């Protein structure tokens, strides 16, 4: 899926790692690989690939690989800063996911619910069921 119209993320971390953005491309490979690529004008800024492996019925183990242009010493400095910041972000996300899992189990593990804001879930379901087909480009405008 290709995303455009977002020249720069709002977050400080994205600005630090990416710089200017012309478009982003996301890919999903069944069963558990997600890749997010951010492109500047004429060059790749950053690709983050996430790998997810189920460990138990309610636990998934994951890791990520980040790839970007060679920046020598500046790249290592960015990586160190990124790791410091991401530890806090990941711990917050883990707490949110643990609460969501507890709530899901408490209400009998119902099938997922989807809303109009969930623009990727239908595409991922098509990939998982083998019914995906080429889709005409369309513009979505989301306001929060």
Mean pLDDT, as a whole number?
A: 79
Derived from helix and strand composition plus strand pairing, the structural class reads: alpha+beta
The overall strand count is: 5
Strand order of the largest sheet: 1-2-3-4-5
Strand content: 25-35%
Q: Give the count of structural domains.
A: 2
Architecture overview:
3% of the residues are buried. The chain has a five-stranded antiparallel beta sheet, with no helix packed on it. It has two domains: 1-69, no CATH class; 70-107. The chain has helices at residues 12-18, 73-106, 121-129; strands spanning 2-4, 23-29, 33-39, 44-56, 59-67. Helices cover 35% and strands 27% of the residues. By secondary structure, the chain is of the alpha+beta class. It is globular, with a radius of gyration of 17 Å. Strand 2 and strand 3 form a beta hairpin. The longest helix has 34 residues, at 73-106.
Using brief descriptors, characterize the structure shown.
five-stranded antiparallel beta sheet; globular; 2 domains; alpha+beta; 144 residues; 3 helices; 27% strand; 5 strands
Helices, strands, pairings?
Elements: E1 2-4, H1 12-18, E2 23-29, E3 33-39, E4 44-56, E5 59-67, H2 73-106, H3 121-129
Antiparallel strand pairs: 1-2, 2-3, 3-4, 4-5
Summarize the structure.
The chain is α+β, with helices and mostly antiparallel strands. The chain has helices at 12-18, 73-106, 121-129; strands at 2-4, 23-29, 33-39, 44-56, 59-67.
